[in-house]
From TrEMBL:
It comes from the Bacteria. This is Putative restriction endonuclease domain-containing protein. PANTHER family: SLL1072 PROTEIN, SLR1083 PROTEIN. Pfam families: Uma2. The lineage of its organism: Bacteria, Pseudomonadati, Nitrospinota/Tectimicrobiota group, Candidatus Tectimicrobiota, Candidatus Entotheonellia. InterPro entries: Nuclease_put_TT1808, Restrct_endonuc-II-like, Uma2. Residues 8-86 form the Putative restriction endonuclease domain.
Amino acid sequence: QTALSDGGYTVGPPELIIEVASSSESIDLNAKRRDYEHAGVLEYVVLAIRQQAVRWFVLREGAYQEMQVDAKGIFKSTVFPGLWLDQEALCQLDVAQVLATLRQGLESPEHAAFVQQLQSRRDASS
């Protein structure tokens, strides 16, 4: 999706945008969400401070669908395999648990396969 132009400039929409929202929750969950959806951002995450919630949207067939946590309360990125976020730990500011969950994701087979895929792409373009 995002790529480098011949001149070395980044072109295309980002794969993932994360917003931390307090007073801007309404803007982030409405206007910005529509803008990012229209631009083709694949995943959009809003950490809604006042609601103490994480809202994770995934672009499917041109429209955002809200992702739900798994049975353990974990969000798992579809764009970046291995990017796992523990919603409750993040909202409770439990940094140790947030980091533990991130580490689990980075140690997952899905992440290893993703890293291998990226390395193969880099090798092919060299």
